[in-house]
Structure formats: C-alpha cells, structure tokens
C-alpha cells in the first residue's frame, strides 16, 4: 500500500515538473493574428504575452478605428493562445496523473 502511495507521489511530482516545463515552453510558442484586411498584425506567446504589434499607416489617422482593430484582433489572438495553452497543459496533466479509482477529471 505504501509503495503504491509513494509511487503516486513520485508520479505527481514528476507531473508537476512537466507542467512547469510546459508553462516555460509556452513562452516560446508564438501565436500570430491579423485583422481581416491585414492592416493590424499581433504576435503573442501561448502564455498571452504580447510580443509585437504592426499597424498600417492609414489606421494611425483614425483613433476610434484603431481601437476597434486592436480590440478585435487582440481578443482573437488571446483566444488562440489560451486554447493552445490549455490544450498543452491538459495533455501533460492527463498523461501524468496516477490511476486513482473514481478520480477521472481529465478524461
């Protein structure tokens, strides 16, 4: 019994390390998003850190339009980054969870 418990604890620690490594790796995964017309381009990490924003010159003359472009494009990029982040972390967590009867939250 204690051997099983120690094995599970070891597996949980190993999984925790993999989760931390995956979180660090998400800083290197880049997500690109553009407005439909290509006038605004943003790049984020999968951890949702903005890395770059490119704005077409004609958007600089209309503050309200630029704000709309930023909101729409950044929200799309954040959604993409969040989906990648959650999928990667869920895969690591599911793979590393010990088989505990009745505990199937990652299935």
Automatic annotation (TrEMBL):
Q: Show the coiled coil region(s).
A: none
This protein's record includes keyword DNA-binding: yes
The entry's function note states: Binds to DNA and alters its conformation. May be involved in regulation of gene expression, nucleoid organization and DNA protection.
- Where are the residues of the annotated region Disordered? 1-20
InterPro entries associated with the record: YbaB-like_sf, YbaB/EbfC
| Pfam family for this entry, one | YbaB_DNA_bd
- Answer whether the UniProt record assigns the keyword Glycoprotein to this protein: no
- Keywords of this protein's UniProt record, alphabetized? Cytoplasm, DNA-binding
| Subcellular localization(s) per the UniProt record | Cytoplasm, Nucleoid
Major location (coarse): cytoplasm
Q: Which domain of life is it from?
A: Bacteria
Species in which this protein is naturally found: Mariniflexile ostreae
Oligomeric form and interacting partners: Homodimer.
The transmembrane segments are none
Gene3D superfamilies xref list: Nucleoid-associated protein YbaB-like domain (3.30.1310.10)
**Composition bias, Basic and acidic residues:** 11-20
Q: What is this protein called?
A: Nucleoid-associated protein ACFFU9_15865
Which family does the record assign? Belongs to the YbaB/EbfC family.
């Amino acid at each position: 019994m204690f051997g099983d418990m120690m094995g599970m604890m070891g597996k949980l620690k190993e999984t925790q390390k993999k989760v931390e490594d995956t979180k660090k790796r998400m800083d290197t995964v880049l997500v690109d998003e553009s407005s439909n017309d290509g006038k605004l381009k943003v790049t984020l990490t999968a951890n949702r850190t903005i890395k770059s924003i490119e704005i077409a010159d004609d958007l600089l003359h209309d503050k309200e339009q630029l704000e709309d472009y930023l909101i729409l494009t950044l929200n799309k990029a954040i959604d993409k980054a969040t989906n990648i982040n959650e999928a990667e972390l869920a895969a690591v967590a599911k793979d590393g969870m010990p088989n505990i009867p009745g505990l199937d939250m990652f299935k």
